[in-house]
Amino acid sequence: MGKYLISCDCATHIFGWAIINKKDFTLVDYGEIHCDKDDVMERTNYMVDELQKVVKKYRADLSSAVVEDVPRNIKNVNTTMALGKLNGAVLYLLHKYNLPTELIYPSTWHSKLGILTSKGDVKKQSIEWVNKKYNTDFKYYSKSSKKNQDNITDPIAMACVVLGNYDKVLKFGVGKRKGSNK
I need a surface site. Which of 4, 6, 158, 181 has the fewest CB within 10 A? Predict the structure, then answer.
């Protein structure tokens, strides 16, 4: 039985993934898959082929997966359709490798980590949360920058939520740390 979780943040041009050790919550590996092809199916096929390389590399140690579900509030129908196609292809790939997969909405993992639009840019908050948790130095430039590294930090943060490796956030502030008596 594998000891790693693969976490996938599907996006239309930059796909982020992370591998987390389920036992000690260490960050094993992460990356981005970039594709600027105009055709949605070409992008989808390319991204899934590249993700398959990651799955094959870690196959012996993978036991499960989490994939960010397509948000229900996307106003652009074309984006929703593109994400739906990519998510479906990713889910099929993970099924092909017998990896039990959990879907999680962005709003679910954001709220569990206290990442809220009322606190500012969620991209910046995701990057800051992962940098603090893992003592990393992922970059945030600006709300609209393509250089932001939230495509890497989002799957890391999602994995932490799914694995329960985060501080619980209560409605009116930070609650007890998981496993803490304080």
Answer: 181
